[in-house]
Amino acid sequence: MFVIEVLTIVVLASAAFAATNLDNLVLLAALYSRYEQRPAWVIFGYFAGMLIIGGVSLAMGKASELMPITYLGFLGIIPILIGITALVNVFRGITPLGGTDERRLDSNLAVFTATLMTQLSNGADTIVTFSILIADTVNSADHWIGLSFILMLCVLASAAYYSLRHQWLSGVLERYGHVVTPFILISVGLYVLANTATDMMPG
């Protein structure tokens, strides 16, 4: 793969991760704040949840490759529809953020489980987007997608912790994150629909 192709897939995968996890970022910051005495168990739960999501995305992406190559690109319609739906919700004033259990948890395992389940319950859009991206790209691009996933996982975990001490960041994410997300998802869908150098479409 050429450098420009690698950069394209890394930027796209990173943007896709950010777009589908901005709500999880805000929820993670809330969990950090609520369980400030057990930050390690929050981060363990977050990484476990996201790695499960990544594994499911990879499995679904590889399974999708069993489809006829000619039709793989049309999977891009799905993130476009998700993006359009999210955009409609923005205009209707509906935000995607869910709540977290208001009860304080008294054990490390309970904090881990609460964080894990919070991430998994909000991971459907990430699974759909990444499984489609993996299915549509050549195998040599998969490790760049995986690397981008892990890198953004670390970035968002750090950003959530950072936002506890810088409230302006939390405000920006809550105010504008759901507005940016639809456009990134639509861009991912258009990329999948396009016949690019990294996809599985026959040249």
Structure description:
This protein is mainly alpha-helical. It has one domain. It is built from 8 helices and no strands. The protein has helices at residues 3-34, 39-64, 69-72, 77-91, 108-121, 124-136, 139-163, 167-193. Helix 2 runs parallel beside helix 5 and helix 2 (39-64) crosses helix 6. The radius of gyration is 17 Å and the shape is globular. Mean pLDDT is 75; it is low at 97-103 and 196-203.
Throw out a few tags for this protein:
about 200 residues, mainly alpha, globular
The quaternary structure here is: single chain
Give the domain tally. Answer: 1
Largest sheet: none
Please tally the helical runs, counting DSSP H or I stretches of 4 or more residues: 8
Question: In sequence order, what are the helices and strands, one letter per element?
Answer: HHHHHHHH
Class inferred from helices and paired strands:
mainly alpha
The shape, in one word, is globular
The portion of residues forming beta strands comes to: under 5%
C-alpha end-to-end distance: 15 Å
Determine the fraction of residues in helical runs and give it as a percent range.
Answer: over 70%
Give me the count of strands: 0
* Mean model confidence by pLDDT: 75
Low-confidence stretches: 97-103, 196-203
Radius of gyration, CA atoms, in whole angstroms: 17 Å
